[in-house]
Amino acid sequence: MKKIILSLALALGVASGVQAAGDGIAWDKAPNKTNDLAALQNGAKIFVNHCLNCHSAAFMRYNRLQDIGLTEQQIKDNLLFTTEKVGDTMKSNIDPKQAKEWFGATPPDLTLIARSRAGHNGTGADYLYTYMRTFYPDETKATGWNNLAFPNVGMPHVLWELQGERRPMFDSREEHGHQVDVFKGWEQIKPGKMTSLQYDQTIGDLVGYLQWMAEPGQNTRVRIGVWVMLFLVGFMLIAWRLNTAYWKDIK
Asked: I need a surface site. Which of 91, 114, 148, 205 has the fewest CB within 10 A?
């Protein structure tokens, strides 16, 4: 019986270790920009210019961007590049078969990515914010890039010109009789067009847009919810006073 319990404990330990390794590093907290229209507009521009080449957002229409303050003419002038129309959905023109050959898998649709990637490390926005900031060069990979948040990822670093090239640094220490590499920071190898702070702000804008795109009605729902709660509190006070007045002469 003891052997069975020990075997189960070892199996669970190995499984949890594999899961932890697959999760990569801890996720950084993403800034909340879903109410910042300027940030959402910049995020939409980054998404269309850099992400939409390979990824689709097939459940989002271009004209819905009017909800973040863009006019129909601004959408036509700045976000439509070929034969798309304002009422069309955001679909990528990449061939799925070729994409699978190049990257090892078909690039996923990103409409709901900010909601679907939530985990025990944080929200989906936290994951995306960490993921887009932890690429590093890796000559062993077909794309030349790897990622700390998603080890062995098939996606290249599409924003490398903005961020530049960085190398992760680790400290080696002993834990439970084993040597473990602990991430301690980044070393800039080649500078990008942006400073580290500017790049983080840009990724914050992109992630904010992905959050908004996953649920465009979220801000409206929250505002309405606040008014509903205030109404219920006010009605409860009125009902309480009416109840007191009704029963005051009844013993």
From this structure: 91
pTM of the model: 0.80
Q: In this structure, are 148 and 206 located in the same domain?
A: yes
Overall number of domains in the chain = 2
The token pair that represents 98 in the structure block: 């070729």
186, containing H or E segment: strand 178-191
Phi, psi angle pair for 115, to nearest 5°: -100, -35
Q: What is the tens place of the pLDDT at every residue in 132-185?
A: 999 999 999 989 999 999 999 999 999 999 999 999 998 888 777 788 888 889
Same-domain status, 249 and 177: no
- In sequence order, the 6+-apart residues with CB closer than 8 A to the CB of 62 are 75, 79, 80, 84, 85, 86, 87, 88, 89, 90
Dihedral of the CA atoms 87, 88, 90, 95 (nearest 10)? -170
Other Cβ atoms less than 10 A from the Cβ of 178: the count is 7
Instruction: Tell me, yes or no, whether 175 lies in a domain.
Output: yes
